[in-house]
Amino acid sequence: MRISRGALLVLIAMSVPIVIELRTVASFVGIEVPLSVTLALSLLVVVALVFWATLPPKQEPESTG
Amino acid sequence: MSAYIDDFPEEAAVIRAAFWSSFVALAIGAFFGLIQTLHRTDIVRIFDSTDYYTILTAHGVFMVITFTIFFLVGVFTWAVTTSLDRGVESLRFTWSWYLLMSLGTVFTAIPILAGFVDSIDMSADVLFTFYAPLQAHPLFYIGLTMFVIGTWLAGADWFRSWWAWKSENPSERIPLPTFMVLTTMIMWYIATLGIAVSILAFLLPWSLGLVETVNPLLTRTLFWYFGHPVVYFWLMPAYLMWYTLLPKFAGGRLFSDPLARVVFVLFLLLSTPVGIHHQYLDPGISEGFKFIAMTNTMFLLLPSLLTAFTVVASIEHGARQRGGEGYFAWLGALPWREPAFTGMALAGLMFAAGGFSGMINAGMNINYLIHNTLWVPGHFHLTVGTAVALTFMAGAYWLMPQVTGKPLASKPIALFQTVLWFVGMTFMSNAMHRAGLLGIPRRTAEPQYEGFEFQAAVGSVAELDAQVAIGGTLLFVSAVLFLWNMLITSFNRPTETLPSNVIPEPLSGSDDSPAVLDNLKLWTLIAIVLVVLAYSLPLASIVDRGGLFGPGGDAFPVRLSPTLVAQLLVDTVQEGLR
């Protein structure tokens, strides 16, 4: 995993206010996001975060010095 | 390197008792919170709407008076004894203030809960704010008075510890956690004078029938004289833990002792002369006084911003000690698996959001937009409901093992609980803020009206209601998980492997802070002068216009006497004949 499970849980939690507030912010510029789209977007964000977090960690380039 | 209970077993018993008093209040308050949320949103109505104020009073009083302040006295006792490295001067005195607070709580709770039982002629449906014309049974005011006197004695206990320590260490600076406790208590002594006068001179005699009427605006103003600094009384133990424990959990040390002292001095000076900003819509106070209160309030942003800077810098230092690198990648090095750290960090994050909505409340003109709407509960559920409550729960995950000697029952459930609180509060407070902007009122059992519909700017009011109900339910589940974890922890077997009760020395220590910061007499004097400047003219004007006990008006709830019923019937008939 790239991050700990605890950090993943916190990241998912932090995505909740962002997705919720994004809907309000989008309305300021005239974009009405339906509830169903918000729910689908939330699910997509969670899946993307889990996918990214469970990828193997990046390999550090070996020192040539 | 030992746990708190190893060094202070007797003080640990007092702290445990205070924490459990706090948790019982949280359980009752959370239950009424859930009932209220589901009632308002018309999801489930198990109580009659006429009992809504009883539910609201119970939720408010148990949450923001009992839960918060019992936890505060526990944390402050821990902070003073730990940082002075000495026990309390008299354990009997310490238990006596705890018992007085407990008895006061019982006395206050009886008339509140009696409001649910029609056969008992006793009620206190006066909400947490309890000013006239709402009138409670005398027992409510007597209980509150005992509770507050208990906190005064607790403060005296901590001052005694400091004076005893000072006589043995005359040239030493006040240790930072003790400094935080002492400045907070000075602010509390000044602030509680307002409700002491309000209760003892007006509300209690009025409730006992010794005086016929009171001046409602005067009792409102005296309440808000206390009502804003009490917010900082809830917040200061949370700040204390952010300054002392959060850097430790992050693996580092506090960034700056001097900045922390400046912050607490500023809170002492500025917390009280601002209460009139809760009364922007009160007609009996002139606009000029309100403007002064607004200006003072805006200055209060400074210590909060200083705190954000100092605490985040300390956390970053901790993360870099743990190998964190880069501009933002260091965030990944923080101990997110630790519920005490994660809970406090999330609480701090939500406090920032609460600060922004608080600026709207504080702005005199824009306040008119959201005054008495659901925006306001949305705001204070971010501040006291999360910055304070979540920090306390997260702190309990570290402090309870320290004062019981027993390991936390379940760390994964604790982590899940803190995150669940964050998510639940996001749902609930977001919807409350948005509903407030539509003009949906607060303190209303059924904000659904025939022939009128609130128009939502985004989505629908039904969506907002659903969001509030889902958020409130998640918060209740989170509170249950917390209480269950605490209960199981109390039955755990003691362990020898608890983390040590050492607060790391700040990077920039007390030697770097100017000595004048420790001059508590000076700051107390300035705080009193600021209060006199902010309040003497408005209070004189209110008394001049309405008198100390007038202009009067009927108390609520109104007692229906036969003559009153007859008069009402005559009035109604006469009205119908016109």
UniProtKB/TrEMBL annotation, chain A:
<keyword id="KW-0472">Membrane</keyword>
<protein>
    <submittedName>
        <fullName>CbaC protein</fullName>
    </submittedName>
</protein>
<feature type="transmembrane region" description="Helical">
    <location>
        <begin position="35"/>
        <end position="55"/>
    </location>
</feature>
<keyword id="KW-1133">Transmembrane helix</keyword>
<feature type="transmembrane region" description="Helical">
    <location>
        <begin position="7"/>
        <end position="29"/>
    </location>
</feature>
<keyword id="KW-0812">Transmembrane</keyword>
Automatic annotation (TrEMBL), chain B:
<keyword id="KW-0249">Electron transport</keyword>
<comment type="similarity">
    <text>Belongs to the heme-copper respiratory oxidase family.</text>
</comment>
<feature type="domain" description="Cytochrome oxidase subunit I profile">
    <location>
        <begin position="22"/>
        <end position="517"/>
    </location>
</feature>
<feature type="transmembrane region" description="Helical">
    <location>
        <begin position="12"/>
        <end position="35"/>
    </location>
</feature>
<feature type="transmembrane region" description="Helical">
    <location>
        <begin position="380"/>
        <end position="400"/>
    </location>
</feature>
<dbReference type="GO" id="GO:0009060">
    <property type="term" value="P:aerobic respiration"/>
</dbReference>
<dbReference type="InterPro" id="IPR023616">
    <property type="entry name" value="Cyt_c_oxase-like_su1_dom"/>
</dbReference>
<feature type="transmembrane region" description="Helical">
    <location>
        <begin position="55"/>
        <end position="81"/>
    </location>
</feature>
<feature type="transmembrane region" description="Helical">
    <location>
        <begin position="258"/>
        <end position="278"/>
    </location>
</feature>
<dbReference type="GO" id="GO:0016020">
    <property type="term" value="C:membrane"/>
</dbReference>
<feature type="transmembrane region" description="Helical">
    <location>
        <begin position="522"/>
        <end position="543"/>
    </location>
</feature>
<dbReference type="InterPro" id="IPR023615">
    <property type="entry name" value="Cyt_c_Oxase_su1_BS"/>
</dbReference>
<feature type="transmembrane region" description="Helical">
    <location>
        <begin position="298"/>
        <end position="319"/>
    </location>
</feature>
<dbReference type="GO" id="GO:0020037">
    <property type="term" value="F:heme binding"/>
</dbReference>
<dbReference type="InterPro" id="IPR036927">
    <property type="entry name" value="Cyt_c_oxase-like_su1_sf"/>
</dbReference>
<feature type="transmembrane region" description="Helical">
    <location>
        <begin position="340"/>
        <end position="360"/>
    </location>
</feature>
<feature type="transmembrane region" description="Helical">
    <location>
        <begin position="468"/>
        <end position="488"/>
    </location>
</feature>
<dbReference type="GO" id="GO:0004129">
    <property type="term" value="F:cytochrome-c oxidase activity"/>
</dbReference>
<keyword id="KW-0813">Transport</keyword>
<feature type="transmembrane region" description="Helical">
    <location>
        <begin position="179"/>
        <end position="203"/>
    </location>
</feature>
<dbReference type="Pfam" id="PF00115">
    <property type="entry name" value="COX1"/>
</dbReference>
<keyword id="KW-0812">Transmembrane</keyword>
